[in-house]
Amino acid sequence: MQTEYCELCGAPLTKKGKLVQIEGAKPMKVCDKCAKLGTEVQAPRPASAGFGRPTVVRKGPAQPASAAVPRKRDMFDYMEGDIVEDFPKRIAAARLAKGFSQKDLAFVLKMQEGDIKKLERGEREPTEAERKKLEAELGIELLDTGSDSDSLQQGGVAATTLGDVLQVKRK
Ligand SMILES: [Zn+2]
């Protein structure tokens, strides 16, 4: 075993020496004689403070992007498609663009003028047959498919994701 010396006076230490703090200096290992000059302290135990403290793993905010999962919706609801909310506006705008009066449009579509009025006022939605006639005649899209009308005919499910459709609906 290596001989240790008093850190204060340099005398070889008998036994193990003493750890002493003198006038606020850091503890030194000294001989018995020098130990009287200061205050004996306990051997430092590095583990005493903060030992075994569990590592707190901060929970960060939830992963962005992946959190936005669209609500599930009945597939058939989507397959059939909904009449767009602003169909009255679309019908009226397209009719006016063609220079049709409501009466003209009713005549062309073999519908009642009152029905055109109701549709343009949003009092009721067009029936399936009416919708198809209106779309064909006016060149508009009245189904909320999220994209062009063709994609619905040939299986819009593959062409458009459900999420896309829902996004459009939320507008
Ligand atoms: Zn000494």
Automatic annotation (TrEMBL):
Xref: InterPro entries: Cro/C1-type_HTH, Lambda_DNA-bd_dom_sf, MJ0586
SMART domains the record matches: HTH_XRE (SM00530)
Chain positions covered by the region annotation Disordered: 44-68
Annotated ranges, domain HTH cro/C1-type: 91-152
Protein name: Multiprotein bridging factor aMBF1
Domain of life: Archaea
Pfam family, one: HTH_3
